Automatic annotation (TrEMBL):
Residues 19-192 form the NapC/NirT cytochrome c N-terminal domain. Binds 4 heme groups per subunit. Its main location: membrane. InterPro entries: Cytochrome_c-type_ET, Multihaem_cyt_sf, NapC/NirT/NrfH, NapC/NirT_cyt_c_N, NapC/NirT_cytc_sf, NO3Rdtase_cyt_c_NapC/NirT. The chain crosses the membrane at residues 21-42. Pfam families: Cytochrom_NNT (PF03264). It is found in: Cell membrane. It is a single-pass membrane protein. Keywords: Cell membrane, Electron transport, Heme, Iron, Membrane, Metal-binding, Transmembrane, Transmembrane helix, Transport. Belongs to the NapC/NirT/NrfH family. SUPFAM superfamilies: Multiheme cytochromes (SSF48695). This is Cytochrome c-type protein. It comes from Steroidobacter flavus.
Length: 217
């Protein structure tokens, strides 16, 4: 036991006063290599949690919102350009992405305690979950939408008259943003009674007799 303690003391002295044992060049090179390994490992782990495979690894997402996404144009379309879960729910900029990951860490708590581990629980929480995401997109000016859809590059000749009117009116200034009209763009809507949507966007969805709301196209 004493030998083990003496060895620990010697190693502590080496670590606490490394310059007595190693050259400055060795320390710099070691720190540089260690930094690369740490940063590479951190980003690898970050990207692993930023994939559709990871998002749908739990049945709560796979059996509910991901199943709904499959029926929309964001999942399958003529051009083959598909939006995945992180494309819409995780910012692309690194600092914003880290902040979002920290915010989403509380979802682990929900997973552990089974907050939405059944279809019934998910439907009961659907409106609250949707409101959180709508508020986030409203606050960041629908940043994830704008990563792919740019107002200044819209071709008005290929849009319906109603779409041209709404886009040119709502998006021309800074008062409104994408999520104000497109709340049901990739998933079924909850009961929308009392929820504001611009330009009558949800009328056909609110009037549906289907309790969960129809799939948004």
């Amino acid at each position: 036991m004493k030998a083990l303690f003496d060895r620990a003391v010697r190693w502590w002295r080496v670590l606490s006063s490394p310059s007595r044992y190693f050259s400055l060049g060795f320390l710099v090179a070691g720190g540089f290599i260690g930094g690369i390994i740490f940063w590479g490992g951190f980003n690898t782990a970050l990207e692993a949690t930023n994939s559709e495979k990871f998002c749908t690894s739990c049945h709560e997402m796979r059996d509910n919102v991901f199943a709904e996404l499959k029926s929309t144009i964001h999942y399958s379309n003529r051009s083959g350009v598909r939006a995945t879960c992180p494309d819409c729910h995780v910012p692309h900029q690194w600092t914003d992405k880290i902040a979002r990951k920290m915010q989403a860490s509380k979802e682990v708590w929900g997973k552990i305690f089974g907050t939405i581990n059944t279809r019934e629980k998910f439907l009961d929480k659907r409106l609250d979950l949707a409101k959180h995401e709508w508020a986030r997109l409203k606050a960041n000016d629908s940043l994830e939408c704008r990563n792919c859809h740019a107002y200044k590059f819209m071709d008005w000749t290929r849009q319906s008259q109603r779409a041209v009117y709404v886009h040119s009116t709502a998006l021309a200034g800074n008062e409104h943003t994408c999520i104000d009209c497109h709340k049901g763009i990739a998933h079924r809507l909850p009961n929308m009674e009392g929820i504001e949507m611009l330009y009558g966007a949800p009328i056909e969805q609110i009037s549906s007799s289907e309790p969960e709301g129809p799939s948004a196209k």
